[in-house]
Amino acid sequence: MTNNSALSTQHSALTAIVLAGGKSSRMGQDKALLCVDGVPLLQRVCHIAAACAETVYIVTPWPERYQNLTLPRCEFILEATVNQGPLVGFAQGLAQVQTDWVLLLACDLPKLQVEVLQGWIAELDNVGEDAIAALAHHTKGWEPLCGFYRRRCLPQLLDFINQGGRSFQQWLQQSSVQVLALPDTKMLLNCNTPEDWASL
Ligand SMILES: Nc1nc2c(ncn2[C@@H]2O[C@H](COP(=O)(O)OP(=O)(O)OP(=O)(O)O)[C@@H](O)[C@H]2O)c(=O)[nH]1
Ligand SMILES: [Mg+2]
């Protein structure tokens, strides 16, 4: 039995959503296609997502850009709107999810560690019923783009968006969120600028 199938047996109730639709204005080119160790970032993140969840959705307004990547078990969700930000992209992906929990990932996380994600997944059964999400926390607030959400948060997320909300931090302030222990903060390194990329 491979690691993947062991995991999917144990945690079949997990879907992953990978966001690939930002402006990449600080980077000046699409971050999803930047190669780290010869592998495009989106492909790298999607492989890790596929090792954690049975279904992986890539939410993007431009799937044609990524058609030459190797993305096993990944399905594109074509975003209806462009440049509405990650919260709106997440809501569009979440509307397709059938499992109780979803793992949300940005595409610009070059240091993602599958072992840490798998450790978190093993704890999901212990998350209190009142929590709508389980996320790592740092000095600037929650890390919303590398963590877990309950599917049932969709109605309140849509309410927040329909009232003009676009900030994960503001949305999460309204709800109960469980803290995930982060063994290594480097894992959440966000590759936003050419300097970030060069430092890899
Ligand atoms: N699907 C989708 N993903 C988005 C959207 N905006 C941001 N993202 C994703 O969210 C993650 C974090 O994006 P950021 O690094 O904050 O923003 P960005 O717009 O990509 O880059 P900047 O223009 O430099 O801020 C990345 O995986 C982006 O691809 C969007 O409107 N739709
Ligand atoms: Mg970023």
TrEMBL record:
Organism superkingdom: Bacteria
Example of a GO cellular component annotation carried by this entry: cytoplasm
Domain MobA-like NTP transferase per the UniProt entry, residue ranges: 16-172
Entry's Gene Ontology molecular function annotations: GTP binding; metal ion binding; molybdenum cofactor guanylyltransferase activity
Binding annotation for GTP: L19, A20, G21, K31, D108
EC number: 2.7.7.77
Domain note: The N-terminal domain determines nucleotide recognition and specific binding, while the C-terminal domain determines the specific binding to the target protein.
Name this polypeptide is given: Probable molybdenum cofactor guanylyltransferase
Originating organism: Nostoc piscinale CENA21
Upper taxonomic lineage: Bacteria, Bacillati, Cyanobacteriota, Cyanophyceae, Nostocales
